[in-house]
What we know:
Layout: H1 2-7, H2 18-55, H3 63-94, H4 98-119, H5 130-141, H6 144-166, H7 187-262, H8 274-302, E1 309-312, H9 313-330, E2 334-339, E3 345-348, H10 350-366, E4 373-380, E5 384-391, H11 412-416, H12 425-435, E6 439-443, E7 456-463
Parallel strand pairs: 2-4
Antiparallel strand pairs: 1-3, 4-5, 5-7, 6-7
Helix pairs in contact: 2-3, 2-4, 3-4, 4-5, 4-6, 5-7, 6-7, 7-8, 8-12, 9-10, 10-12
Amino acid sequence: MVILSKLFTLVPERVNFDSFWIEIRKRNKWLIHLRYLAVILLLCFVAGSKIIQNYVPDISLPYTKILLLTGLIFCYNLLFHYLWTIFPKISQKVKVHSLHFSLIQIVSDFIVLIFLIYFTGGVESPFNTFFVFHLIIGSLLLPGPIISLIMTMTLITLICGSLLEYYQIIPHNQIAGIVKTPLYNDPSYLIVFFSTFTIVVFVSIYLANSIAKVLYEREKQLFEAYKELEEAERRKSKYVMTVVHDLKTPVSAALTWVDLIANKSIGEIPEYLLEPISRIKNRLRNALDLISGILEITQVRLSSEVNKENVDINKLIQELYDKHRILILSKNLEYRVKSNSENIVIATDEKLLNLALSNIISNAIKYTEPNGVIEVKVTDSDKMVEISIADNGIGIPEDDLPKIFQEFYRSSLSRAKNIEGTGLGMALVKEIITRLGGEISIYSPSYLASENRRGTQVLIKLHK
């Protein structure tokens, strides 16, 4: 029983590959669409046969039975379509996965196809070849032993049906006018037909399954290689974090001493040394900002978990304003907040989102000239929350926009204006929003742009 369980398991080794389950879900929908096409083709087949019958009166089909089967296919396909839409919700409750859904669809199609073949002549039916299409599709979705077992049971059913027709236990349904001489009662034809049919179907299963297995093995190798690269990146990040953290202490100490000297806390200093000391102080502060930025982005990358909790977005935006209030007032900036709802709550990591939005608002303040405008707009919809932060500051040149999320990259305009920065802020923001499963876009000019102020807009989309 254990051996059989392992042989006929429906769960493949690649169960942990998210891309595999996404692909299976797509294939399930593809099967549903193909079934709609099959319904249309069957209706066209019936209509075409009716037209041909006007010119060739000898041809006759069991139209009522074919139409009933067509209606049955259409009805259960509507059910499958509905189940596909709600499957992510019900799969967790009833503990089934997408391959179970694939199996149910294929078995249902095989049962209907057996009846369609019986009503259209059994071994004489033109629909026998349709099994091959289904086998190829099934072999790409299901493990080889499963699809082989289904086909073996189907073959046994077809052979038993043919024997029952041969011995006249059940009636034979013949398509009149197409097959002039009955073949269902010819033993030689039955042996040749089922021998050939068996070889064709099992060779098809073998070939399709072999191709699928090679593709999945390649996917497995790529997945393992990616995991190794990811682990190497984590080791490198830990090393960088350790080194940078060790650098932070002496730089902080040096900055403290320079502050004491600049403030004349340890005694008077000559006037000609004030400017060099001020430059040293700025350089040390920039170095400290750079070290802090590297530590922040490394910590985000090393963090494997997202601690989701219900976050009130409007409250978070207000907290961020309070945090940057002194800087906003010092530049006499007009800071506007717009929201389409008073209660906007989303399940996300508050600490990470706070860090990302804080970086964007800091940039907006830094790159907006005095008396400028910053507008934060929050839009709540059924599926997502959009957070837009726009300003009418110096903006970003068009050539720099594609590179703005790169580490240590600073726009040519900010460098030309000697605005201090590390070039890590937007890289950190991108890392965080991606980790939260959201999307981020940046536009310049913004909708607040004026003649001499290009402005920038950062748009974040967080899925509910």
